[in-house]
Predict the 3D structure of the following.
Amino acid sequence: DQQVKQNSPSLSVQEGRISILNCDYTNSMFDYFLWYKKYPAEGPTFLISISSIKDKNEDGRFTVFLNKSAKHLSLHIVPSQPGDSAVYFCAASARGAGGTSYGKLTFGQGTILTVHP
Amino acid sequence: KAGVTQTPRYLIKTRGQQVTLSCSPISGHRSVSWYQQTPGQGLQFLFEYFSETQRNKGNFPGRFSGRQFSNSRSEMNVSTLELGDSALYLCASSPLAGGAGELFFGEGSRLTVL
């Protein structure tokens, strides 16, 4: 039962253009969402997060959009740079009011982003 | 500030053996979580520890266990290793309070079971 899905295994984008990575989830208990970037032989690196009380969060070139009714979130990278080439993971957690599930993330399968110069 | 440190980085074991992996969280972080990454299953949650207590556990057999010490360092153990246990084991720490609520991951321990 895959509760977090990234349906695009890969995405190829030209440098300077926008990269849009998508993620869908099924568990309505999820209330916190994160994006991670991962290079080979390294651990995932946190990029940006969003709480379910918001629909948008922006940090520099990275913006995450959340559509709760559609159970869908997306990560926009503008402008894309060759150094952004990596595997991007969407993750979700059900923190609730008690905040007892900070460490338990459910990850998608990842999307390989390639940014061409 | 030093990041999350995992040891060993690489190890090879044979079926039936056991293995212990170690994780030192970022100084001041009290929550430690463990994840298994395999090509077929992606990143899967193993367990989370906070103040030496297991708070959450994923869907893994009892052969997978862990513990946390009073200095927040954590270990995970896999007994009676199977070929399917070959994976990258990632440890992550979190301060719980403040920040964006993210987990900080180590570089992982690559386990190969022959």
User: Anything to note?
Assistant: Chain A is about 0% helix and 50% strand. The first strand of chain A starts at residue 4 and ends at 5.
